[in-house]
Amino acid sequence: MRISGRRMALAALSALAATTVFTAPAGATVFNQGISVRPDVRIAGDGSITLSGTYRCEQASPMGAMQVKAAVLQEGHQLSIGGAQVVCDGTERVWEAHAPGFATRSVRPGRATVSAELQEIHLSGLMPSAVATVAQDVRDVEVRADR
């Protein structure tokens, strides 16, 4: 039986879709890589917020870079923060993501969910060609205003 190029492409696409659907659960790591969210989220007097946690990663592939992407979800509104590059040397390090006050109007004191992803960015020349999440943590937090 001969397999056509079209069937081969469909099989490859199906395999890719399956890996996207059946991703690892939150907190899972790939190649000893991990990330965590600290439960203390503060809104400063100027309205800016800071999210933080820890991460650990091994060296990114030679054609890639690593970054932390964080987001706050509260009352149906999501605020994405981050994109900061990280140092991958196998040791646990602290990450912080800041958002200025003008961007955080939808975040108020109270319950929220914070997610953080450790992402590997694959580059093709100077342009990103793919982004892969290698570790993720999602945590319910209490957002508090600084006094």
- Over all CA atoms, what is the radius of gyration? 18 Å
Portion of residues within helices? 10-25%
Under the CATH scheme, which architecture would be assigned? Answer: Sandwich
The helix/strand class is: mainly beta
From the N-terminal CA to the C-terminal CA, the straight-line distance is 73 Å
Q: How many discrete domains? A: 1
CATH topology: Immunoglobulin-like
Query: How much of the sequence is in beta strands?
Result: over 45%
> Judging from the principal axes of the Cα atoms, what is the shape?
elongated
Number of helices: 1
CATH class category: Mainly Beta
Number of E-type strands? 8
Q: Name the helix and strand elements from N-terminus to C-terminus, one letter apiece.
A: HEEEEEEEE
Identify low-pLDDT runs: 5-29
What is the arithmetic mean of pLDDT?
A: 78
Summarize the biggest pleated sheet: 8 strands, mixed
Explain the overall architecture:
It is a single chain. The protein is mainly β and 147 residues long. It contains 1 helix and 8 strands; from the N terminus they run αββββββββ. Strands 1, 2, 3, 4, 5, 6, 7 and 8 form an 8-stranded mixed β-sheet that branches. The N and C termini lie far apart (73 Å).
Summarize the structure.
The chain is mainly β and 147 residues long. The protein contains 1 helix and 8 strands, in the order αββββββββ.
